[in-house]
Amino acid sequence: MLRILKGTAERAGLCPTECYLHKFRATFATHALQGGIDLRTVQAWMGHTDLASTMRYLRPARGEKVQAQVEALWA
Questions:
Q1: d(Cα 27, Cα 74) in Å, to the nearest integer?
Q2: Which of 8, 19, 65, 67 is in the most buried spot, having the most CB atoms within 10 Å?
Q3: Chain-centre distance of CA 64, in angstroms?
């Protein structure tokens, strides 16, 4: 899989040394948490025994999404 990923990156004009399979896991966890999946569920999906391992994928929401959430609080 890693060879395929690096070959695809190279063909796409990206730097293959900056492409790792772990980035897919990290992206999945980050998007799941930002999409509203609860922390314990993502922890189970990722196979983490320590909740802190999952919490590192929490990122503050930005931009229009935050604005919509704030407006929804006051609606």
A1: 31
A2: 19
A3: 19
